[in-house]
Amino acid sequence: KLSDSLTGVIKKITRAPFIDEKLVKEVVRDIQRSLLVSDVNVRLVMDLSKRIEERALQQKAIAGLTKKEHVIKVVYEELISLLGEKQDYHLPTKTRVMLIGIQGSGKTTTSVKLAKFFSKKGLRPFIIAADTYRPAAYDQLLQLAEKANVKVYGEPEGKDPVKIVESGLEKAAHADAVILDTAGRHKSEEELFREMKELAQRFRPDEKLLVIDSNLGQSAGKQAAAFHKAIGLTGVVLTKLDGSAKGGGALSAVAETGTKIRFVGLGEGIDDLEIFDPERFVSRILG
Amino acid sequence: AVLDENRLDELLFDLELALIESDVALEVVDAVKADVKAALLGRSFGRGADLSAIVKQALRDSVKKVFVDGDLLEIIREGKRPFVIVFVGVNGTGKTTTIAKVARLLEREGFSTVIAAADTYRAGAIEQIEKHASNLGVRLIKQGRGADSAAVAFDAIEHARARGLDVVLIDTAGRMDTNVNLMDELKKVVRVSRPDLVLFVGDALSGNAVVEQVRTFHQYTPIDGAIITKADADAKGGSAISIAATLKRPVFFLGTGQGYDDLQRFNGSWFVDQILP
Ligand SMILES: Nc1nc2c(ncn2[C@@H]2O[C@H](COP(=O)(O)OP(=O)(O)OP(=O)(O)O)[C@@H](O)[C@H]2O)c(=O)[nH]1
Ligand SMILES: Nc1nc2c(ncn2[C@@H]2O[C@H](COP(=O)(O)OP(=O)(O)OP(=O)(O)O)[C@@H](O)[C@H]2O)c(=O)[nH]1
Ligand SMILES: [Mg+2]
Ligand SMILES: [Mg+2]
User: Fold this and answer.
1) In what order do the strands lie in the sheet with A261-265?
2) Would an 8 Å CB–CB cutoff place A34 in contact with chain B?
3) Does residue B171 contact residue B116 with C-beta atoms inside 8 Å?
């Protein structure tokens, strides 16, 4: 349905003999709907629409482009400028990566996917299982890690995640990439946010990646901002993009934290992780 | 003065935005707006009338109409034995945790319950629900990881029948509505268990995708109601409205945390008043 709506927009532009203000406004309104259906934040959609409208009406089209093609190009460029160009993940020789995020977003699964990613790049990975709340969290991680052939430290009966981090770091002394999986939490859970801050202090991560479910709607911006304010994020992992959700909430997460989307999750398997591709992401939103 | 379309659109604009910002899906907002227009367009109001209050109330009423009332405990009380409920939904929405909460509620209300660990797919899934069952003192039926999900469900129902237990709660693996193989598998689990209710477990934090998800799930197996989780996560939870509008079935409960008692009966009217105060 989303691609139908934008095909409709393209048809409007390409069939119109020339572009005028009324047509531009109509095109922008259609694009607004595509963005909102993809869960892009309402305020962001409003700002984007204004900029797109101004650019489309005022800028001279680039030579060789019809005014119509110019409008479409403008929409793409505005969205890509928010996300940045596709960037290979910068691999240091040693790294500590902390994964945080809302309950059920995909952190545990992502920790193993990341471990596999690192080992394919020649870095020896190690995962610390610091979720002490969720029943069988350690079992889940062990079973996944076994498939990826990566070592895990955890305490199945453990109650103190900070102690687990300390013991885990000792065990991970020979590893190149140490990944910390944490319990799910959201910004209204003050005690859990306090714990997250303490874990970050003890673990001293090089990377703090917020794991976001692509189904996350309009609260994405506020949640990301709260995580960023608490421990300072260095990136985002957007999961479950193999489903129906377009992940528009991630745009706000990026806008609110000044970071980039590093990876996307495209399935439950440990190989289902890819470097974020902004052009593919935007095309999916615009259909 | 007669209320014309331009004025009505103007009065609706901010309210529409409030609904969208609360994660009510766009097509549901459109439908509700059309409903309000049908009710108010062309009507004349006295000179002192507070038009924005009138429009807001009309919108509230229209959204509230989306909800169908339902009392899960009553339905179970009057239902057959064993009463079978299958829990379905996309990955990570809180199905397994919700089953634990429902089991706690049922035990407290005097129903004997058995849980089927029919997520035979995901890492640690059986261990997770096994721990919940042991915490709750509720019987669990499981087989090994990789076993046939429908077989576990069937096993649990037979167990309940043999022991005269009241309710069977069947956990299933999270799955994307876009994955045809997994959706076919779910269809089979439901066909074999012949449940009294299939409940969609949705996330209060999710946005527009729920409409398509609920529609697709409903095509594979008729959905009888929903439970919305993570309502404690400071989201307005408009997805509950989207789900109710798409399903036209009751939202029975809200999950309001990770503890066994964090389950409260859904009240549509109160819910809408939170979104459109
Ligand atoms: N289809 C799909 N499923 C995913 C993806 N990432 C994770 N999942 C699934 O989403 C569910 C939740 O994943 P987890 O890794 O347990 O999420 P979590 O953030 O660790 O959850 P908590 O620890 O409870 O907060 C599981 O069913 C995963 O298999 C993805 O990219 N695609
Ligand atoms: N804050 C909060 N967390 C919840 C709620 N319900 C479930 N959770 C958490 O969400 C995470 C996922 O819950 P699960 O029960 O594993 O979800 P699921 O749907 O069974 O996941 P899959 O089987 O992997 O698809 C866990 O960390 C739960 O504790 C809720 O109402 N509030
Ligand atoms: Mg986890
Ligand atoms: Mg589950």
Assistant:
1) A151-154, A125-129, A177-181, A95-101, A207-213, A235-239, A261-265, A273-275
2) no
3) yes
DSSP letter for A141, please: H
Contact B92 A213 (CB under 8 A): yes
In which band, very low, low, confident or very high, does the pLDDT at A2 lie, cut at 50, 70 and 90?
very low
Nearest beta carbon to residue B207 from set A137, A217, A242: A217
Paired residues of B197 in beta bridges:
B85
> Taking CB atoms and an 8 Å limit, are B206 and A216 in contact across chains?
yes
φ, ψ at A42 (rounded to 5°): -55, -45
Place of tokens 């697709």: B216
**Residue A17: which residues within 8 A CB-CB, separation 6 or more?**
none
Q: How far is the CA of A101 from the centre of ligand 3 (A)?
A: 9
Q: Do B90 and A140 touch (CB under 8 A)?
A: no
Contacts of A33 (CB under 8 A, 6+ apart): A5, B26
Burial class (CB in 10 A: 0-12, 13-18, 19+), B197: buried
Yes or no: say if A135 and A124 are a contact pair by the CB < 8 Å rule. Answer: no
Nearest beta carbon to residue A217 from set B124, B232, B239: B239
Total count of residues recorded for chain A: 287
Continuous segment of H or E residues that includes residue B139: strand B139-141
Q: Is ligand 2 within 6 A of the CB of residue B127? A: no
pLDDT in tens, chain B (277 residues): 788 899 999 999 999 999 999 999 999 999 999 999 999 998 888 888 899 999 999 999 999 999 999 999 999 999 999 999 999 999 999 999 999 999 999 999 999 999 999 999 999 999 999 999 999 999 999 999 999 999 999 999 999 999 999 999 999 999 999 999 999 999 999 999 999 999 999 999 999 999 999 999 999 999 999 999 999 998 899 999 999 999 999 999 999 999 999 999 999 999 999 999 8
| CA-based torsion, A128, A134, A139, A143: positive or negative | negative
Say yes or no: A140 contacts chain B, CB-CB below 8 A: yes
Peptide bond into B82 cis (omega under 30): yes
Q: Express each pLDDT in B217-261 by its tens digit.
A: 999 999 999 999 999 998 899 999 999 999 999 999 999 999 999
Taking every pair of C-alpha atoms in chain A, what is the biggest distance, in angstroms?
70
How many whole angstroms separate alpha carbon A192 and alpha carbon A201?
A: 14
Atom of ligand 2 nearest to the CA of B171: 20
Going across the sheet that includes B167-171, the strands are B139-141, B113-117, B167-171, B83-88, B197-203, B225-229, B251-255, B263-265
Contact of A213 with chain B, judged by CB distance below 8 Å, is answered with: yes
The best mutation among A140, A268, A273 to test binding of ligand 1, ranked by most ligand atoms within 8 Å of the C-beta, falls on A268
B237 lines ligand 2 (CB under 6 A): no
For the stretch A245-265, pLDDT in tens is 999 999 999 999 999 999 999
Contact A39 B209 (CB under 8 A): yes
Measured CA to CA, the distance from residue A232 to residue A166 in angstroms comes to: 21
Of B90, B127, B135, nearest to A243 by CB-CB distance is B90
